[in-house]
Design brief:
The structure holds two protein chains of two kinds.
Chain A lengths: L23 H19 L12 E6 L5 H12 L3 E6 L11 H9 L5 E6 L4 H8 L3 E7 L5 H15 L6 E5 L6 H12 L3 E5 L15 E3 L2 H5 L4 E4 L15 H8 L3 H4 L7 E3 L12 H5 L6 H20 L1
Parallel strand pairs in A: 1-2, 1-3, 3-4, 5-6, 5-8, 6-7, 8-9
Chain B lengths: L3 E10 L4 E9 L5 E5 L14 E2 L4 E4 L1 E6 L12 H10 L2 E6 L10 H14 L3 E6 L13 H6 L4 E2 L9 H14 L2 E4 L12 E2 L2 H6 L3 E2 L2 H16 L3 E4 L5 H11 L5 E5 H5 L21 H12 L5 E3 L27 H10 L5 H8 L1 H7 L14 E11 L18 E11 L2 E5 L1
Parallel strand pairs in B: 1-4, 1-5, 6-7, 7-8, 8-9, 10-13, 11-12, 13-14, 14-15
Antiparallel strand pairs in B: 1-2, 2-3, 5-16, 16-17, 17-18
Helix pairs in contact in B: 4-6, 6-7, 7-9
Classes of the chains: A alpha/beta, B alpha/beta.
């Protein structure tokens, strides 16, 4: 299959650290590249060699299943040599700082480093110290750009547009990088964004990011085209953000009666991993007419292939 | 020591209400013999050599009420010698050192060590503070009376707050009995837990845990409410927000206390953090521009008494980390005066007022005979060219730690000479 890169349009950034750094033409470039990979990923021979000879290092400081495997697969399908660093066995555990790790990896001349880190801004720090492109696979609570891009691609795939849609993002917004990246991207693409969360899980001044905020889920879901659920991180329970899982489910879990407030053809999204019965009713999660959760994973590979290709160049 | 004559200087000495062009005579003992406009060419002996300062400024040596020194325990960050060198490079001749060392300054035996080291290694006047509670744990009071007798000037847990209200009321009662100065770092530790910067839209965007401004206000309000019943010498170490200025304005009508502010909070705001600049991770955090302006108004309304450097040397390794891992604080004793002068140059605060907050006011709170140019006193002073432009460069920082939060900042005004007890210790 022939994948022609459009040389006329170039990405404005050296690294992919966050959606907030991207222009709308950057986003369109990534999304249109990603669209080309969707069919490749469904074909019999999924491998091409446009990144042949390139080295991709996945540096995951936080456990991750789907993002890490998605990036690994994306790199391999493009023909890159992919190395995934297992941080639990690495020098970091022996007290090495992120900067020293960056210097060490840099000496191995990678072409691209994919990083996931528990601290906000870790990818920014890394990008200042290495010569290659850095792709952020999630930093603390700040950004998770490829997740937002794959969400946008999924929405476009189903709804043919984002402009003018009303999109609800529900759950633990405070600790969510997915929410932040999505707010930037969906706003940029012309959607109306409703944020739904208990006040304890809303970051300060979030409405200044150009969103409507709701602590009543039904009100927030009114006439929405897309309902994006976020994972409730169970460890939050201990710091008394919330009283219990069952109360959370009662008020903020996505159930058929709450979903009735949204449009009839509303789609359900979730970045995973899901807590069934806590933030989402298990039948809704599996409802093939409403839930696009599996499609998100599928398109995730295409989006990451597009990002690897564009930022490797 | 030879007698020294300085003529044609702009002298600002708030303690003696002097703001005039004149001269300064230092006698053989390093004391001030004469000062003011009456000291001029016509009334000094013609055989004496004099220095024409050409309208440069003479200020009393600055008194910095909040300085961290790494000794004992963290000598790799700063010791008394390097602190002293940094201070004189900025015209600071007296400092109050914080007790957050290892071991903590919380008992009389360590005070002797501290005073000996300070005397032997530092050329400036060191006034050590001791901790309010043993090992800074916030549970048991230290021996205020005995420590004071040994020469401790005030009590503070430094970077920590007395969280327990009952303990705070007992501390105030003891401080009243023993006439001790209490300096509180105001921050509700529960509200600010894991916080790294001001809580607001910037922290939300950067994905960093915020420190709400009410965490500061609540402690100030609580302490000042306690103070209504238990009137001891109480000083809020540093305030950072408009809300704190508000509560201080209310309480000033009811009780007497004093308040400090870091020059960092007067000069910078949260936007300066930019792309995770860890050198601007400070406590209290930099807040909004509105907060900064409120603090300046607070100074002009006499609600804030002291400007401090909040000098907190940290080695580069503890700053070259992610924002959440990085150490808090900035080195700043040597830039305290130049950075303060920015407030004069941009019309925020009058020069006389600035110098008052840097010299006579802290001395008055500490009850020390420093920060003035009174006749007969030690000649601790600096000569400054307040219009000289220069750029702060990390590499040129004198302090052992180079963690300045104003690297590459353009400033106007530099200290040219610093004298302690009549002896010239610094010359640019």
């Amino acid at each position: 299959m022939a994948i022609n890169s459009n040389k006329a349009i170039k990405i404005s950034q050296k690294h992919l650290l966050g959606i907030q750094d991207l222009s709308i033409s950057d986003v369109n470039l990534i999304l249109s590249e990603a669209k080309k990979f969707i069919s490749l990923n469904k074909s019999k021979n999924k491998k091409i060699d446009i990144l042949k000879g390139k080295t991709q290092i996945n540096l995951f400081f936080e456990p991750s299943t789907r993002t890490q495997s998605s990036f690994e697969l994306a790199g391999k399908r493009l023909g890159a040599d992919v190395m995934s660093m297992n941080i639990t066995n690495s020098a970091i555990k022996k007290g090495e700082t992120l900067i020293d790790t960056a210097m060490t990896l840099n000496a191995m001349h990678p072409d691209i480093i994919v990083i996931r880190h528990q601290d906000s801004g870790a990818c920014n720090l890394l990008s200042q110290k290495v010569n290659c492109a850095v792709l952020n696979a999630g930093d603390g609570r700040r950004e998770h750009p490829t997740q937002a891009l794959l969400d946008a691609l999924t929405i476009i795939d189903r709804k043919n547009k984002i402009q003018g849609l009303r999109i609800a993002i529900c759950g633990d917004i405070l600790h969510s990088r997915v929410a932040r990246s999505n707010i930037y991207l969906l706003n940029m693409l012309g959607a109306e964004v409703n944020i739904i969360a208990p006040s304890n899980l809303l970051p300060k001044d979030i409405s200044k990011m150009g969103v409507n905020t709701f602590s009543n889920m039904k009100k927030g879901l009114k006439d929405c085209d897309i309902v994006m659920m976020l994972r409730l991180q169970n460890e939050r329970m201990t710091s008394s953000f919330l009283s219990s899982n069952r109360e959370y489910y009662e008020y903020y879990g996505l159930t058929p009666d709450k979903l009735d407030e949204a449009k009839n053809d509303a789609l359900i999204m979730h970045p995973g991993p899901m807590n069934r019965g806590i933030e989402i009713d298990t039948k809704l999660a599996d409802d093939i007419n409403k839930s696009v959760i599996k499609e998100q994973v599928e398109l995730g590979v295409a989006v990451r292939m597009a990002c690897l290709k564009i930022f490797c160049e | 020591m030879k007698k020294k004559y300085f003529l044609n200087a702009n002298i600002v000495d708030p303690h003696n209400s002097i703001e005039e062009i004149g001269g300064l005579i230092i006698n053989e003992e390093g004391k001030i013999e004469a000062i003011g406009k009456k000291v001029n060419k016509n009334n000094i002996p013609s055989r004496e050599k004099f220095i024409d300062l050409k309208e440069k400024y003479i200020f009393p040596g600055l008194v910095d009420m909040r300085v961290f020194v790494g000794e004992p325990g963290y000598e790799y960050k700063e010791n008394f010698k390097t602190l002293s060198n940094a201070a004189i490079a900025g015209g600071v001749t007296s400092v109050v050192t914080m007790p957050n060392t290892s071991p903590v300054i919380d008992n009389v035996s360590i005070v002797d060590f501290l005073k000996r080291r300070g005397r032997d290694k530092a050329k400036i006047n060191i006034f050590p503070a001791a901790s309010l509670t043993k090992n800074l744990e916030g549970t048991n009071m230290t021996e205020f009376g005995l420590l004071k007798k040994k020469g401790i000037i005030g009590f503070t847990d430094g970077t920590k707050t007395i969280q327990n209200t009952r303990l705070m009321s007992r501390i105030m009662k003891s401080a009243y009995d023993l006439d001790c100065l209490i300096m509180q770092h105001a921050e509700d530790l529960e509200l600010s837990k894991n916080g790294m910067m001001n809580d607001g839209i910037i922290s939300t965007k950067l994905g960093l845990q915020g420190i709400p401004d009410i965490a500061e206000k609540i402690i100030i309000e609580r302490d000042l409410t306690l103070l209504e019943d238990l009137n001891c010498r109480y000083h809020v170490s540093q305030i950072s927000s408009s809300k704190s200025v508000g509560i201080i304005e209310q309480k000033k009508e009811v009780v007497s206390f004093t308040t400090g502010v870091s020059i960092n909070n007067l000069s910078l705001n949260e936007n300066d953090i930019g792309d995770f600049r860890t050198f601007l991770k400070l406590s209290p955090p930099l807040r909004t521009e509105d907060d900064r302006i409120s603090l300046i108004k607070g100074i002009n309304k006499n609600l804030i008494d002291v400007i401090v450097s909040d000098h907190k040397p940290e080695d580069e390794e503890s700053k070259r980390l992610t924002f959440s891992q990085a150490a808090t604080g900035a080195s700043g004793v040597e830039t305290l005066l130049p950075l303060s002068l920015e407030l004069f140059h941009n019309g925020s605060v009058k020069l006389f007022k600035l110098i008052e907050l840097l010299t006579s006011n802290p001395a008055k709170i500490l009850k020390i005979n420093k920060g003035n140019l009174s006749i007969g006193n030690d000649a601790d002073f600096c000569i400054a060219d307040i219009y000289k432009p220069w750029i702060v460069k990390k590499e040129k920082i004198v302090s052992k730690s180079k963690n300045t939060c104003i690297d590459d900042k353009k400033l106007q005004g530099q200290v040219v000479n610093t004298f302690v007890k009549g002896e010239e210790l610094f010359k640019i």
